[in-house]
Amino acid sequence: MNGIMAIGVDEVQCRKGYKYLTLVYQIGSANTRLLWIGKGRTEVTFQTFFDQLGEAVVKRIEYVCSDMWKPYLKVIKQRAGHELHLLDWFQIVVRVNKLLDEV
Q1: CB atoms within 10 A of CB 75
Q2: What whole-number percentage of the chain has pLDDT above 90?
Q3: Angle formed by the axes of helices 43-53 and 70-79, to 10°?
Q4: Mean of pLDDT values over 34-53
Q5: Can you give the pTM of this predicted structure?
Q6: Which long-range contacts (CB under 8 A, 24 or more apart) does 91-100 make?
Q7: CA–CA separation, 42 vs 73, rounded Å?
Q8: Angle at 23 between CA 12 and CA 14, to 5 degrees
Q9: Please, what are the domains in the chain?
């Protein structure tokens, strides 16, 4: 993982009943590849990714892309606060549309 510059984090439902996996991708201009899969979509799960990656590699990451899932946002702020954090555009559009409906 020498060339990590950007990562993306998301979750996928793996079974009925709100059973999720956390997926972390390396995002690059030439390709995107799956780096890590964690059980659940909790702070502890995502913290485990950063623990396994190690601080030396974490410091080389420049960008993180995620949705607005609060446990992910909290871990990104704690462990990757030096990086530019990009939010998934779909989540932003959903929130803006909801606010417009309320107005």
Answers
A1: 24
A2: 60
A3: 30
A4: 96
A5: 0.83
A6: 91/67, 95/68
A7: 11
A8: 30
A9: 6-102 (3.30.420)
